[in-house]
Design brief:
Distance between the termini of chain A: 12 Å
Strand content of chain B: 25-35%
Order of helices and strands of chain A: EEEHEEEEEHHEH
Helix content of chain B: 10-25%
Helix content of chain A: 10-25%
CATH topology of chain A: OB fold (Dihydrolipoamide Acetyltransferase, E2P)
Order of helices and strands of chain B: EHEEHEEHEEEHEEHEEEHHHEEEEEE
Number of helices of chain A: 4
Number of domains of chain A: 1
Structural class of chain B: alpha+beta
Distance between the termini of chain B: 43 Å
Structural class of chain A: alpha+beta
CATH superfamily of the largest domain in chain B: Probable tRNA modification gtpase trme, domain 1
Largest interface: A-B, 14 and 17 residues
Oligomer: heterodimer
Strand order of the largest sheet of chain B: 14-17-16-15-18-19
Number of strands of chain B: 19
Strand order of the largest sheet of chain A: 1-2-3-9-8-5
CATH class of chain A: Mainly Beta
CATH topology of the largest domain in chain B: Gyrase A, domain 2
Shape of chain A: globular
Number of helices of chain B: 8
CATH superfamily of chain A: RNA polymerase II/Efflux pump adaptor protein, barrel-sandwich hybrid domain
Shape of chain B: globular
CATH architecture of the largest domain in chain B: 2-Layer Sandwich
C-alpha cells in the first residue's frame, strides 16, 4: 500500500498536497482499497467555502458511501471534472489523476502542521488492520 | 453459533490471488480479488470462479425422504425427478421465511439441501425435527426411516458462472454438459475428482456449481482456472451481490427473513398449497395467499447518481414514508443505481428515496433488472 512521503494525511484517509497557498486533496490508496470501485464522487462547487473536518462531498463505491471531508479551511478553487465521467481514476491513480479538489487555504494552514505525517498515517492504517 | 471465523479449503488460493477477505456468516471469505466491477463484468461476458464453500449442505436420505421434505419445506420435493433441482423455502409455522434453499434430488432416496451459511444450523435443526415428526419421518413408529445428515464439513463448493462456463468446464469433466438442463445435476468428475455437478447459480447467468470433497477444492479450482489463457478470473462476494441484485434474486437478511412470507417477496409460486398433506406453515400461508399483499417487493432505478442502500426510506410523491430499500447498488451492467424495496400494500408510486437526507427520484421497474435471455 502506497503512502507517498511528500504528502500530508488525515484520519479520514485523505491526502493533501500543499503548494504555496493551495492544497490539492484526494483519498488515499488505503481508502480506495477499503471502498472498492468508486462509481461516483460528489465534490464541492468552485467558490464554496470549506471547513476543516466538515463534510463537503461524498464518495460512492459499489458497496458503500462515505463522506468526503475537507482537511483544511479555505475556498474551493478547482475540482477534478474528469472524475464525473471516469470515477475509476480514483482507484487507478488515487495520488495522481484521481485527485479531487483544490482549496486556497486560509492563512496559517499552509504548512500542514495540523495534518498527519506519512509515518503517522502509515501507523494509523496498520493499527486499523 | 461459533465465535471463531472459519476458513474454506481455498484460503491459500485466495491469499495467493491477493484477495481482500471479509467475515461473512462466520466464515473468512473473499470480498474481491481486484476490481469487483471487473469481476462482475467477467461473469456477464465470459466466466469466473467463486468459492462458495461456506454454504450449508444437508443430506436427507431414506425411502421416505421425499415425503419428509414435502412436510418440512414449502415446495414439493417428492415430485422432483432424480437429477433435477428446485428453488424452495423453509418457513416457520407462522409463514415467515427461515431460509431459501436449493434442493437437488441426487438419487431416488437422497436429496441434497443447500442452505445459506448464516442459516445452516437453523435449517439443520428444523429438518432434523420436521423429518422425524412428519409423514415420511420415522416418528418413532414409521418404518420409513428418514436420515438428516449435516454434510457441510465434508463438502466444498466451487462455482463457475458466466456465458462461457460450459465451454471451460467441459474441458475438465467427463460429464456431457450440453444436454444438461438448467436446474439439473449429475455425478461426474472434474479434473479427475468426484463431484456433484449442477447447472445452478446465483448470478443470472448460465453456470455450474461443483460440490466436492474439501480436499478436492484446490485441484478442481486450479484445473478450472487453467482452462482459460492467463487463468479464469475469480470473483468475490461483492460481485456475487451485484450479480444477484441485477438478476432480481433475493438475499436472505435483505429481502427475506422471518417477518416476510414468500408472497410478499413475490415468490408465492414456491409455496405448493396444491400438494397433498400438511406442511409446516400451510395454514398461515394459505391465509396469506387469500388476502391482498401487505407489502410488495419492487424494483427501483435511481434517476440520480446517488445510490440507494439497504435501509433507506422509500417515499411517496407527498414525501411520506411508504417503504424501505432492502438492497441497492450501482449496477455495473446498467450503469445506474438499482434497488429492491418493500412498499406497503400495493402502492404504485411515483417514489423517491431518502438518500442521506435528500430525496432522489426513482423509477419503478419490473424485476429482474437484467435478464440474459433478453
Amino acid at each position: 500500500m502506497s503512502v507517498p512521503a511528500e504528502l500530508h494525511y488525515t484520519q479520514e484517509h485523505e491526502w493533501v498536497a500543499i503548494d504555496g497557498g493551495t492544497a490539492t486533496i484526494g483519498i488515499t490508496d488505503y481508502a480506495t482499497q477499503q471502498l472498492g470501485d468508486v462509481v461516483y464522487v460528489s465534490l464541492p462547487e468552485v467558490g464554496a467555502a470549506v471547513t476543516a473536518g466538515e463534510p463537503c462531498g461524498e464518495v460512492e463505491s459499489t458497496k458503500s458511501v462515505s463522506d468526503l471531508y475537507s482537511p483544511v479551511d479555505g475556498e474551493v478553487v478547482e475540482v477534478n471534472e474528469e472524475l464525473d465521467d471516469d470515477p475509476g481514476l480514483i482507484n487507478a491513480e488515487p495520488y495522481g489523476l484521481g485527485w479531487m479538489f483544490r482549496v486556497r487555504v486560509a492563512d496559517g494552514q499552509a504548512t500542514g502542521a495540523a495534518l498527519l505525517s506519512p509515518t503517522e498515517y502509515d501507523a494509523l492504517t496498520k493499527s486499523a488492520g | 453459533m461459533t465465535s471463531t471465523t472459519r476458513d474454506t479449503p481455498l484460503r491459500a488460493v485466495h491469499e495467493r490471488l491477493g484477495a481482500t477477505m471479509t467475515e461473512f456468516a462466520g466464515w473468512r471469505m473473499p470480498l474481491r480479488y481486484g476490481s469487483e466491477t471487473a469481476e462482475h463484468n467477467a461473469v456477464r461476458t465470459n466466466a469466473a470462479l467463486f468459492d462458495l464453500s461456506h454454504m450449508g449442505e444437508i443430506a436427507v436420505t431414506g425411502p421416505g425422504a421425499g415425503a419428509a421434505l414435502d412436510y418440512a419445506v414449502c415446495g414439493w420435493p417428492s415430485r422432483l425427478a432424480v437429477g433435477r433441482a428446485r428453488y424452495t423455502m423453509i418457513c416457520a409455522p407462522d409463514g415467515g421465511i427461515l431460509d431459501d434453499l436449493i434442493i437437488y434430488r441426487q438419487a431416488e432416496t437422497r436429496f441434497l439441501v443447500v442452505a445459506n451459511a448464516a442459516n445452516a444450523s437453523v435449517v439443520l435443526g428444523e429438518l432434523q425435527s420436521r423429518c422425524s415428526g412428519g409423514p415420511g419421518g420415522s416418528g418413532g413408529r414409521s418404518p420409513r426411516e428418514t436420515v438428516v445428515t449435516d454434510e457441510s464439513e465434508v463438502t466444498g463448493l466451487v462455482s463457475i458462472q458466466g456465458p462461457n462456463a460450459l465451454g471451460f468446464l467441459a474441458t475438465v469433466t467427463d460429464l456431457p454438459l450440453a444436454g444438461m438442463p438448467y436446474y439439473a445435476g449429475a455425478y461426474g468428475t472434474v479434473a479427475g475428482r468426484d463431484a456433484w455437478i449442477a447447472r445452478t447459480g446465483y448470478t443470472g447467468e448460465d453456470g455450474f456449481e461443483l460440490f466436492c470433497a474439501p480436499a478436492d477444492c484446490v485441484p478442481v479450482w486450479e484445473a478450472l482456472s487453467a482452462t482459460a489463457p492467463g487463468g479464469l478470473p475469480a470473483a468475490g462476494l461483492a460481485a456475487r451481490d451485484t450479480l444477484r441484485l441485477e438478476a432480481g434474486m433475493p438475499l436472505y437478511g435483505n429481502e427475506l427473513g422471518p417477518d416476510v412470507t414468500p408472497y410478499e417477496a413475490g415468490l408465492g409460486r414456491v409455496v405448493r398449497l396444491d400438494k397433498p398433506g400438511d406442511f409446516v406453515g400451510r395454514q398461515a400461508l394459505a391465509a396469506r395467499a387469500a388476502e391482498g399483499p401487505r407489502r410488495t417487493l419492487i424494483g427501483l432505478i435511481g434517476k440520480s447518481r446517488r445510490v440507494p442502500r439497504h435501509g433507506y426510506a422509500v417515499l411517496s410523491d407527498a414525501g411520506d414514508r411508504v417503504g424501505v430499500v432492502t438492497s441497492g447498488a450501482p449496477s455495473p451492467t446498467l450503469g445506474v443505481p438499482i434497488a429492491m424495496a418493500y412498499v406497503s400494500g400495493d402502492t404504485t408510486g411515483p417514489f423517491g428515496i431518502d438518500v442521506r437526507g435528500k430525496t432522489e427520484p426513482a423509477e419503478v421497474t419490473g424485476l429482474p433488472f437484467y435478464d440474459r435471455r433478453k
